[in-house]
Amino acid sequence: MGIAASELCRYVIRPTLTYLGQHSPTAESLLLGIAASQSELGSALHERRGHGLYGITKPRHCALWDNYLALDPERASLVRGLASQHAFLSAPQLELTVNLRYATAIAWLLVEQHTVTLPATGDVLGMARIWKEIFHPQGRLRDFSQAWQTCVSPKNHVSC
After folding, report:
1. 42 near 53, Cβ under 8 Å?
2. Is the pLDDT confidence value at 158 over 50?
3. Contact present, 83 and 33 (Cβ < 8 Å)
4. Is residue 5's pLDDT more than 70?
5. Which string of DSSP letters, residue by residue, matches 29-57?
6. What are the two backbone dihedrals, phi and then psi, of residue 89, each rounded to the nearest 5 degrees?
7. For the whole model, what pTM was predicted?
8. Number of neighbours of residue 77 by Cβ within 10 angstroms
9. For the chain, domain boundaries
């Protein structure tokens, strides 16, 4: 069983986006949809596709640090502040599975790195396109839509 969409949003996604200075209802919805599509909101945290809620692979995680965050030390320091002190140094990928705020920050930065404009908050197809492009290129847009309907739809995402 995964995390309730409203609680994931309220206690993890919103505070993390606010901490990064990137909060918006669209960003919240997009991250909820990605978590639903990649792990069924935490029901499957270690799949072949990657680690944690957002299914981020080790190469994607390393590339984000090496090619994006390394170019912005202030931003890197902010994100590093979300990680566990010792665990991050010995097993950084484990942070993607056990540290929800850190994983959320990394997922958002992957989006930020590739996306110029976000779709409207309720544009599930627009969010699906971002998910497919960044997180699961072999995925089908309907997979995202189905995950959205199952895990995030308004009955599960009551004004988080």
Report:
1. yes
2. no
3. no
4. yes
5. HHHHHHHHHHHTTTTSSEETTEETTTTB-
6. -70, -35
7. 0.92
8. 10
9. 5-152
- And the tokens for 5? 């969409």
Q: How confident is the model at residue 93 (pLDDT cuts 50, 70, 90)?
A: confident
Q: CA nearest 83: which of 41, 123, 52, 39?
A: 52
Sign of the Cα torsion 72, 78, 82, 83 reads positive
Least confident of 7-11, 149-153, 156-160: 156-160
**Helices marked H in the chain — which ranges?**
5-8, 14-20, 25-39, 58-67, 73-80, 87-90, 92-98, 100-114, 124-134, 141-147
Q: What is the mean pLDDT of residues 52-68?
A: 94
Tokens 């056990």 map to which residue? 98
Number of Cβ within 10 Å of residue 108's Cβ equals: 21
Q: Is the pLDDT of residue 160 over 60?
A: no
Neighbours of 18 (CB within 10 A): 10
Measured distance CA(97)–CA(136) in Å, rounded: 18
HSE, side-chain direction, 13 A CA sphere, residue 1:
1
